[in-house]
């Protein structure tokens, strides 16, 4: 709790977030830890919060290395998306979309147990990812669902199989808009 989320970064306790505000549930059954940019203007404006080395030795260094590696994967993926759009591979870099990256890592823990209630409980309630892309590292545990067509009612949710150690790539709202719905 000493690292409670501040300026979008830090720890978020169980049930503290509700991604779908229309639900009457107490909140999503997950806890999370957020960290973002390591350098640049955003890192200065929104500094990451880290546990002390005494509590979690090498954890900060490990997470910073992970952040850099995932950011590199994301940049390569955006190059492939640009090529698929018949643009130059470095299109997103040239237009400044990757300047001072706003990428945020969200480490999530779903306890697998929910409080007894008459209200439905979700690990992460229905939402869309608002950015360009989301990379979800999977551990083989099922639970993720996607709705391929947000405009159709009722929404049809499909299970997404997780492959241990693989990333699932979600196209975010921003990329959907930038591509006029070609990438959804």
From TrEMBL:
Q: One matching Pfam family, short form?
A: 2OG-FeII_Oxy
Which PANTHER family does this UniProt record tie to the protein? 2-OXOGLUTARATE (2OG) AND FE(II)-DEPENDENT OXYGENASE SUPERFAMILY PROTEIN (PTHR10209:SF590), OXIDOREDUCTASE, 2OG-FE II OXYGENASE FAMILY PROTEIN (PTHR10209)
| Keywords carried by this UniProt record | Iron, Metal-binding, Oxidoreductase
Source organism per UniProt: Arabidopsis thaliana
The UniProt entry, under InterPro entries, shows: IPNS-like_FE2OG_OXY, IPNS-like_sf, Oxoglu/Fe-dep_dioxygenase_dom
What SUPFAM superfamilies has UniProt attached to this entry? Answer: Clavaminate synthase-like
Protein name, per record? 2-oxoglutarate (2OG) and Fe(II)-dependent oxygenase superfamily protein
Q: Which family does it belong to?
A: Belongs to the iron/ascorbate-dependent oxidoreductase family.
